[in-house]
């Protein structure tokens, strides 16, 4: 699995209420939620993000409430991966559960800048900043997590397993 796109950069402690403010949670439509992604921290994000783009942030990305809406709206907006120094634990699980790849790498989170073109190889955990010509080693996904993400999330993965009759 790979991802490639341009970077949107954020700092420490980007919480779920910044990713998708509670005032927009009256909709169950993922596209509607995506149209309000990051609005309080980056009002132009939803209009600028393109399929495949990548978010790079510092520490504790996704802290706050445990809403699945946060990773879902980013994935629906077109974000192909989030790189951060650390993630809030519930955001980490919710991201995998909805099929949004995330990867922890302190050096990449500190050095990659907004606008850089970045490529990630999830099998190896390698992160390539094509703009600067630098390479970072992130934590690769275990095979079972790659399968969940490739399937589009835990529900799709489970449905595939049930249909195929495998464990």
UniProtKB/TrEMBL annotation:
<dbReference type="Pfam" id="PF00694">
    <property type="entry name" value="Aconitase_C"/>
</dbReference>
<comment type="pathway">
    <text>Amino-acid biosynthesis; L-leucine biosynthesis; L-leucine from 3-methyl-2-oxobutanoate: step 2/4.</text>
</comment>
<protein>
    <recommendedName>
        <fullName>3-isopropylmalate dehydratase small subunit</fullName>
        <ecNumber>4.2.1.33</ecNumber>
    </recommendedName>
</protein>
<dbReference type="InterPro" id="IPR050075">
    <property type="entry name" value="LeuD"/>
</dbReference>
<keyword id="KW-0432">Leucine biosynthesis</keyword>
<feature type="domain" description="Aconitase A/isopropylmalate dehydratase small subunit swivel">
    <location>
        <begin position="44"/>
        <end position="104"/>
    </location>
</feature>
<keyword id="KW-0100">Branched-chain amino acid biosynthesis</keyword>
<comment type="subunit">
    <text>Heterodimer of LeuC and LeuD.</text>
</comment>
<dbReference type="InterPro" id="IPR000573">
    <property type="entry name" value="AconitaseA/IPMdHydase_ssu_swvl"/>
</dbReference>
<comment type="similarity">
    <text>Belongs to the LeuD family. LeuD type 2 subfamily.</text>
</comment>
<dbReference type="InterPro" id="IPR011827">
    <property type="entry name" value="LeuD_type2/HacB/DmdB"/>
</dbReference>
<dbReference type="InterPro" id="IPR033940">
    <property type="entry name" value="IPMI_Swivel"/>
</dbReference>
<dbReference type="InterPro" id="IPR015928">
    <property type="entry name" value="Aconitase/3IPM_dehydase_swvl"/>
</dbReference>
<keyword id="KW-0028">Amino-acid biosynthesis</keyword>
<comment type="function">
    <text>Catalyzes the isomerization between 2-isopropylmalate and 3-isopropylmalate, via the formation of 2-isopropylmaleate.</text>
</comment>
<keyword id="KW-0456">Lyase</keyword>
